[in-house]
Specification:
single chain; eight-stranded mixed β-sheet; 14-stranded antiparallel β-sheet; mainly beta
Length: 752
């Protein structure tokens, strides 16, 4: 019956208008709710199928709620650094628990009114905790997700309760890959340097460096400030030396309080996949003249000999040489007034005793040690000389007591090309009337003055002044030999006398060097990279050819004594880098930066990208350091936090340092309007909304984050009051339908 249908239609109108009034009331009630999104009710017809062509069957109206989740609200400024708003699409990821576990609800909100709760977590007014990608300095792991913050590389990772590094998968929303932002556990701390990034122009006009004419140029230095794990700041320099028209080698100074510095590179992979030692250096720093009887032992792996230097004022006992142990007295009384006097005496003793002794140089109160291309690994034990700073190096893991032992590694064989001849015998008969052939010239060791015969290629080295009682002073003999080489060799700079060693270094321009040591037999030892096999072999009692060119990575041809740290293209951009990491052993109680599981990570060196001019360049013009950035910080107390437009949460310290600690990701949806609303001004994903996709703010369609701001409710009061009047009138009209239909029914019943 149409009257009853009319009444039902009116009832449906009352229900729909009531729903609309409910939405309006919610909107007005939340006009000041941060991040609130306007709700509305959409009406649609409710149709009854018409069964008669002459009578109308009324239907009614039905309503459906509609969210404006994607509508942008106005941003309002605040004075709270943890208040954040989103300008554009996206939602903050939150959870009802600070440390989410299974069953804890993941939700999404635009309400960025976060504050620090009693436990230090960021929590909004709805009671939900902010979840983020934690950040750590990049440890070089190629599988880590790396982000660049102000020129320094960080990775999305954190340390678990056992101290292990957990690498984050930034596509997954769970308690493993998203972590709460906790500001209470930042505290005052020191942060060691994990990476250095730099850009500089190494002038293409610089000459190839000639050590005999250093003033001509070819060496450039870039200064850097680094921090150890205790927060100590240390100055150091990175040194670049031109070795060919487009190649530069690289070295580094040893910071005060450190024992050694080692540069590594990972480009050579054919021989092995381990990082190659490109450069190594160390030092012995003395705070005063050592005590009588104290000692330092230096073991050279090439001769397998330990050289024990005993500091004496004339009363200390000097044991006789035994097996592979040699004992050398270092006078600390005669003419030794200052620490500098002592280090000069120590240097002299080293150069009179050791192979490749040019590695050691007295510099004030310090003995500087720079590994030569041909030098063998050195192990230094300074534990018995407390006047040496390095006696505190490398504490034992179990006791914490310093061992005083550290290593100066040898340059990796895979990236160098050289020969070293160690003259190990001290018996004069092993040298007299014996010969060695170098680069087509035969040198005869004799004990009388004998004229050279250049036409025959014969040259005579009178070593009589180095012989006494059938023994030979090897260091003195080598100095005599060096003088002969300097006046007779075709390219004397390739032959370096270094203590009891002759080091042969191919140049970038010279020819191959033929070597014949068969006549010296067992009086010598050493190594050579032989041209015929491109492999290393013993130089004792053999013939070999040291080529000017050698092969790396199977097919890459290099020249000279060692691969360049950086080689440049014709346009001045880097072609490749052979150095990308630096390790430091400390003697001041700080954690070593050597990548050992029990120590800190190595320092990553970022000198730009291959084929671009964003780092090192080799262009005409002056030497210029364009930029140098490093992370790390001395001790400082936490003072606050800042949040950037890309969501990076940065801790601020009273020492002026900053440390990125997390990134607030934004979740985007294919249909944000399809999410379900929850109490607390949050939403959860549904089938209708699609799966949440995490983005960094400002990327891939995600909006930007504005700090010190909140997103206001997008409710417009004028519109709501207007809608309320319309809804009220519609509701009144619907009641009129019912009362009128009721009167009609009443009339109908009175007819009976």
């Amino acid at each position: 019956m149409s009257i009853f249908g009319a009444m039902q239609s009116g009832i449906s109108a009352l229900a729909s208008q009531s729903s609309s009034m409910g939405a309006i009331s919610d909107n007005i009630a939340n006009v000041n709710t941060i991040g609130y999104k306007n709700n509305s009710v959409a009406f649609s017809t409710l149709v009854t199928k018409q069964t008669s062509s002459s009578l109308y069957s009324p239907g009614g109206v039905q309503s459906g709620p509609k969210q404006s989740v994607s509508a942008q609200g106005l941003l309002s400024a605040t004075s709270n650094s943890t208040d954040v708003a989103i300008s554009g699409s996206g939602f903050f990821v939150v959870n009802q628990a600070a440390n989410p576990g299974e069953g804890d609800l993941w939700a999404y909100t635009r309400a960025g009114s976060f504050s620090v709760d009693q436990n230090g977590y960021l929590k909004n007014t709805g009671g939900y905790y902010a979840q983020a990608w934690s950040l750590l300095p990049w440890d070089g792991n190629p599988n880590a997700t790396v982000v660049d913050v102000n020129g320094i590389k960080y990775m999305k990772a954190y340390y678990d309760s056992a101290g292990n590094t957990v690498y984050i998968n930034d596509n997954i929303i769970d308690g493993t890959n998203l972590r709460p932002v906790n500001l209470s556990n930042i505290g005052g701390t020191a942060t060691p340097t994990h990476q250095i990034s730099l850009g500089a122009n190494l002038p293409s006009s610089d000459p190839i460096y000639d050590p005999t004419n250093a003033a001509a140029g070819g060496k450039r230095k870039v200064s850097a400030l680094i921090y150890d794990s205790l927060g100590n700041a240390s100055n150091m320099s990175l040194e670049y030396t031109k070795t060919s028209s487009n190649g530069w080698s690289m070295g580094a100074s040893v910071p005060s309080g450190a024992a050694s510095v080692t540069l590594y590179g990972g480009r050579e992979t054919a021989a092995d996949t381990n990082q190659d030692v490109y450069y190594a250096a160390g030092q012995l720093e003395f705070t005063k003249i050592p005590e009588n009887g104290s000692s330092i032992a230096i073991t050279d792996a090439g001769t397998n000999t330990t050289y024990n230097f005993i500091f004496t004022n004339g009363t200390a006992t000097i044991p006789p040489d035994a097996g592979n142990n040699k004992y050398i007295a270092v006078d600390i009384s005669t003419g030794i007034i200052t620490t500098s006097d002592f280090t000069k005496a120590f240097e002299t003793a080293i150069k009179n005793s050791m192979p490749s002794a040019n590695r050691f140089t007295a510099d004030g109160s310090t003995i500087q040690i720079v590994q030569s291309v041909a030098g063998s690994e050195l192990t230094i034990d300074a534990s018995k000389t407390l006047a040496c700073v390095q006696s505190a190096t490398n504490p034992a893991q179990d006791t914490g007591i310093p061992t005083g032992v550290f290593t100066i590694q040898a340059i990796d064989n895979d990236i160098k090309n050289t020969a070293r001849i160690d003259f190990t015998s001290t018996t004069a008969a092993d040298y007299l009337n014996k010969t060695i052939t170098l680069d087509g010239k035969t040198y005869h060791f004799v004990n009388t003055d004998t004229p050279d015969d250049p036409d025959a290629g014969d040259y005579y080295v009178n070593i009589n002044d180095a012989i006494s009682g059938g023994k030979v002073d090897v260091a003195k003999m080598m100095n005599i030999f060096g003088g002969k080489l300097n006046t007779t060799a075709t390219e004397p700079s390739r032959f370096v006398i270094s203590g009891s060693s002759l080091e042969i270094l191919p140049s970038s321009t010279g020819g191959d060097i033929a070597i014949d040591t068969t006549d010296l037999g067992t009086a010598i030892s050493g190594i050579v990279r032989d041209k015929d096999t491109n492999a290393w072999k013993s130089i004792r009692n053999t013939t070999a050819t040291l080529a000017n060119e050698f092969t790396v990575n199977g097919t890459e041809v290099e020249q000279g004594a060692v691969v360049p740290a950086v080689r440049f293209n014709a346009d001045g951009t880097p072609k490749y880098f052979y150095v990308d990491e630096m390790a430091i052993e400390w003697s001041n109680g700080a954690q070593n930066m050597d990548g050992d599981p029990d120590n800190g990570t190595r320092i990553t060196l970022d000198m730009g990208n291959v084929g671009t001019n964003d780092g090192l360049t080799n262009l005409s013009g002056d030497f210029l350091t364009n930029y140098i950035n490093q992370d790390g910080a001395k001790f400082g107390s936490y003072t606050g936090v800042s949040i950037s437009e890309d969501g990076v949460v940065t801790a601020l310290f009273d020492n002026g340092e900053t440390r990125p600690i997390a990134i607030l990701p934004l979740a985007t949806f294919a249909n944000a309007e399809g999410m379900d609303a929850l109490t607390g001004n949050t939403w959860i994903e549904t089938d209708a909304s699609g799966q949440a996709m995490l983005r960094q703010a400002g990327t891939n369609g995600a909006g930007e984050i504005t700090a010190y701001s909140l997103e206001s409710s997008n409710v417009d009061l004028a519109t709501e009051f207007s809608n309320m009047i319309v809804t009220q009138r519609a509701y009144s009209a619907a009641t009129k339908i019912i009362t009128t239909a009721d009167e009609m029914l009443d009339e109908l019943t009175r007819m009976t």
